[in-house]
Amino acid sequence: MTEDARPRTSRISGFHKLSAQQRIDRAAAFAGLDEAQRAQLAAPSNIDAHLADHMIENMVTTIAIPVGIATNMRVDGRDVLVPMATEESSVIAAVGNSARQCYDSGGFTTSMSGTQMIAQIQLLDVADPHRGRLVILEQRAEIERICNACDATLVKFGGGFRELEVRVLDTPGGAMVITHIIVDTRDAMGANAVNTMAERLAPELARWTGGRALLRILSNLADRRVVRARATWPCAVIGGEAVRDAMIAAYHFADHDPYRAATHNKGIMNGVSAVVLATGNDTRAVEAGAHAYAARTGRYRSLSAWEVTAQGDLTGTIELPMAVGLVGGAVKIHPTARALVAILQVKTAEELARIIAAVGLAQNFGAMKALATEGIQRGHMSLHAQNVAFAAGAVGEEVGEIARRLIDRQSINEEAAGLALAELRGGR
Ligand code: NAD
Each residue of 130-141: pLDDT tens digit? Predict the structure, then answer.
């Protein structure tokens, strides 16, 4: 099809009714994709196309992300192999390396504050918001009844309504009455569960207070579901006092400067999000919670803290919200996620959350140690060079050879890779 003859509108009515192949054809015609690109989009993956089509709207294809296993992890006295889904090189190696260096001193110790989620209901136009607040608090028993009636299964598994909080929020748009229902969602991440309750409750709150209900949704600042991990790295194992002190200085930098803290916490999330994704959980929910929690004092800070023990060793702690589940969402229906959860051998969402916190701390140790010593690039170099070789068209054994040449020449870019490939193929 010539450029001009292509259908150029994004107004496609009934796109959702088409099959995945038909959607690929429409998108391909729109963008002028060639046959190879069409075939790539239609290629099968380890998730059944029929299932994928039911998970999201307008599904055309799936995108595979490599999953690796982090080794050497010992969490609460148990050895675990941790699946991590990531497109970024060095992330999994860093976790395995960091965990090896604290394995003999006991690995990671974790705990969790609970598995409670918060849903918010916003009321506007309450004439007397402070009176309205008390009226809602007086209805605690009825609110508990309504919430629990929404989800008998959750109650059967030991979850359900736990607490009620009501605040009056003064905003430029006037006073708002904000109700929090706090619900133990046990092994579910719980968004759907608490959203259902909030929607069911909202008209009652409006009726009791004479106000108007607007938003009814969970908060991703899941600070009733905070997971913690700690570990100690012997000073001698990590390379001595100079390395230890450089890492402490790196931490202080992060904790006092949001520009550094953003990257420090991004490193933590390299580990956290990779396990969250591998287990079919909601990466955005966990990330939103983590960053909001990092800013809970009014200043964006490090999610971890690093200190020197009385014995002179390096000890690290981490604390962040971890709304992950083992039932519901994609966790239960994505067959690959289920198989990866099976590798972890966890029985509860709390066990999963605790392992994820340990991975976040291990990742943070690895990134800080690299940054405070040789810099991040040396560790990244080998895999990065291989990726560049791939991008330049190297195949099979050429990839390793091109990567070696690029590293030797200290010139890792696609142009250099193209030249090296031409040399190699030309027999030089
Ligand atoms: P869900 O509703 O599919 O499953 C949870 C339900 O499973 C519970 O309500 C309960 O009835 C049942 N259940 C069975 N065994 C259980 C057990 N042992 N413990 C607890 N419950 C058990 O899923 P969900 O966890 O309520 O919601 C998660 C989904 O919501 C995710 O896919 C997420 O992406 C999505 N979501 C997120 C947001 C957000 O984060 N802002 C908003 C909307 C939706």
Answer: 999 999 999 999
Q: Tens of pLDDT along 245-304?
A: 999 999 999 999 999 999 999 999 999 999 999 999 999 999 999 999 999 999 999 999
196: nearest Cα among 177, 181, 176, 178: 181
Check: pTM over 0.70? Answer yes or no.
yes
Domain at 378-426, CATH from 3.30.1490, 3.30.1890, 1.10.8, 1.20.1260: 1.10.8
Rg (CA), the chain: 26
Ligand 1 near 187 CB (within 6 A): yes
- The half-sphere exposure of 168 on its side-chain side, counting CA atoms within 13 A, is 18
DSSP label at 14? T
Which numbered atom of ligand 1 lies nearest the CA of 323? 40
- Res. 305: pLDDT tops 90: yes
Residue 381 is predicted with a pLDDT of 78
User: Per-domain residue ranges for the chain?
Assistant: 3-55, 70-113+227-373, 116-219, 378-426
CATH architecture label of 70-113+227-373:
Alpha-Beta Complex (3.90)
pLDDT band at 105 (very low <50, low <70, confident <90, very high): very high
Instruction: Residue 215: count other Cβ atoms within 10 Å of its Cβ.
Output: 13
Q: CATH second-level architecture of 116-219?
A: 2-Layer Sandwich (3.30)
Q: Which of 218, 284, 327 to mutate for ligand 1's pocket (most ligand atoms within 8 Å of CB)?
A: 327
The interaxial angle of helices 258-278 and 91-103, nearest 10 deg, is 90
Q: Indicate the pLDDT class of residue 2, thresholds 50, 70 and 90.
A: low
Handedness of CA 215, 163, 188, 269 (dihedral sign): positive
Task: Please tell me which residue in 187, 282, 313, 351 is annotated as part of the active site.
Answer: 282
Q: How far is the CA of 327 from the centre of ligand 1 (A)?
A: 7
Instruction: Answer whether 196 contacts ligand 1 (Cβ < 6 A).
Output: no
Q: Ligand 1 in contact with 190 (CB < 6 A)?
A: yes
Residue-wise pLDDT for 27-72, tens only, equals: 999 999 999 999 999 998 989 889 999 999 999 999 999 999 999 9
